[in-house]
Amino acid sequence: MKITTGPVGWWRRMFAFLYELLLLIAVVLLAGGISQGVFQLLTGLPVTALTGHLVASTLHFIWVMSVAFAYCAWCWRGGQTLAMRTWRICLVKSDGSSLGWREVAIRFSVVTLCTLPCAPFWIFARHHADLRIVAWLLTGLFFLPFLWALLDKERRFLHDRLAGTQLLIAPPRV
Fold first, then answer.
1. Locate the RDD domain: which residues (predicted)?
2. What are the CB-based long-range contacts (under 8 Å, 24+) for 25-28?
């Protein structure tokens, strides 16, 4: 695939991110549903009992994160997710080559560390006022990659800078 030399604009990346978030939520919900179904089949307990089992909850979390990683790795190693195709964005290493496992792992780890903790703490903060400051700090962490892109000289997100990747404009499909 031929790629133009220009980097992707901030707004195009934001819209692609929002679209990607919708797709990833669907993938995670499907993986979670499968995990819950297996739990129910193996234990005979209702799905609500999953939270009461530390081992089952841990395995559920590992499974869902593994599926999310597999989805991202499969798409990123190919250069584009469905959202990236829609918004004509291509993900490559800084030298223009395809991503390897190292870049995928770094990118996924940084994105996960910045985004994953935010939602649960806001849920807890609704019921525990003393956790609101933590929720606000984690919200800042959530926005860190986007703010980083505004300050970065090449306008890369934090996860792209750390992984040595970049987003470029892809040519229109014919």
1. 8-164
2. 27/67, 27/68, 27/71, 28/64, 28/67, 28/68
